[in-house]
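ok so heres the complex, two chains, lmk if somethin looks off
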Amino acid sequence: GAGVSQSPSNKVTEKGKDVELRCDPISGHTALYWYRQSLGQGLEFLIYFQGNSAPDKSGLPSDRFSAERTGGSVSTLTIQRTQQEDSAVYLCASSRRESGRRTDTQYFGPGTRLTVL
Amino acid sequence: GQQVMQIPQYQHVQEGEDFTTYCNSSTTLSNIQWYKQRPGGHPVFLIQLVKSGEVKKQKRLTFQFGEAKKNSSLHITATQTTDVGTYFCAGFTGRALTFGSGTRLQVQP
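and the predicted structre for the whole thing:
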C-alpha cells in the first residue's frame, strides 16, 4: 500500500473490555513497531517485530498487552481488561529492514486513539 | 535501559527567530533519527545521522551528531509558522529505536 494503515482510527471502550488494534505495514517492510503516545507526551516503545525473529516485547507495560504479526505482514495489538490509564494514541510504524547495526527510516501510521471510559 | 533525553520540552519563539533542540543519550548510539509531528498528526521522518560529528542540512534545518555519538541537535534558522510541531530524536542501539520525549515548538507570527 501507499503507507502504513491502522484501524480503527478511534476506539471508545469500557473499562474491563478487551480491544484489538490493527496495523497494516507498508508492503515489503520487514520491521514493525508499536508505540503508545499519551496526550502531549513522547513515544513509548511497546513491541518490535523483525522478520521471522522472536519479537522484542520489552516495552509492553503489563501482561494485559500482547501483539502478534501474521505472515510477516499485518499486526494486531491486543489489550485485555482495559483500564483508564490505557487511554492513548497507539502508533504503528514499519521500516524496510534492519541491517547490522542500523535501522531504516520508520514510517508511521495515523494511529488509533483509544479511550477507556 | 537506554534513555534518550530531550531539552527543552517546550519553546515559544517569534517568527524569524532561531530554535534549537538538544538530544542526549545515556549510551552510545549507532545512529540517530529526527522526526517531526505536527499537531494532530503522526511522526514523520526528517533525517538520519550515522557518523561521529556528522552535520546535515535541510534548507533552514541543521542536524548535528556528536563526536561521541551520544548527543545530537536540531537547529532551525529563521523559524516560520510551518515549523510548528513537536520534534523528536530517536536513537538506535541495535534493538528498537528509543524516542526522546520531544520538544514542542510554537511559532508566533
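quick notes: The radius of gyration of chain A is 14 Å. thats all i got rn
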